[in-house]
Design brief:
The chain is of the alpha+beta class. It contains 5 helices and 11 strands. Strands 2-3-4-5-6-1-7-11-10 form a 9-stranded mixed β-sheet. The chain is globular. The termini are far apart.
Amino acid sequence: MLDASGTNRLKLHGFNNLTKSLSFNIYDICYAKSAEHRHEYRQYVDELYNAERLTQILTTVTSIIGANVLNIARQDYDPEGASVTMLISEHPTAPADDPSIEEPGPLKNSLVAHLDKSHVTVHTYPETHPDNENGISTFRADIDVSTCGVISPLKALNYLIHQFDSDIVTVDYRVRGFTRDVDGTKLYIDHDINSIQNFFLDETVDRYEMIDVNVYQENIFHTKMLLKNFVLQNYVFGVGTDELSPQERDFISRKLRREMLEIFYGRNMSDGRSV
């Protein structure tokens, strides 16, 4: 069946009961030499991604995927971290930019959202290495966007990645359940996909190294992303690289790269192993 735009559309019996779930782990990595600088870094990211800012981000997400905000509850935690819960629903009528079409979304400029049939969540986690000599600090944002009906979480994919200082990103997408066509045949997916990478804009693809682990028969798709360009100045908090000796710059670079690779591959490296 073709719609007015010529797009091949499924003709369903009743409501589309497929659940489409998109999940992220987004990491920002930093090196702060002193305990004071590590504390300042955690304060900085905690304020940058406080509940108010996360509410703004999620409000834009609901607009991108074609949903309405019904209710908002948000919380900043002591000593750090944040969550926001937002009830949202589908538009009473589909917007001109049809949210049911799975395609890359825009790059517009801890959060939880719950749709009337679905939910979106984001939680933030600042942390530092317990060894004061290590200097590594990380900030993690966990994001889940789960929808059913005509709205698609894939449209928020690019926007969310670029709203955070994303050094490493792991993305999971899964289609669950089934819906029926007018003949009663069960449909376990209603759109074409062989990789989450299909839905990234060129700007996103150019910034990251990516690898996939997909289980096609289960409609499960997994992509890991590692920022390509490593510029030390972007990772040192509290001092400039010109204040560091060549030996210090090399030492810090190796520590940061090791941390990034361990997170990217999901395993720890033994002491002395080169990264």
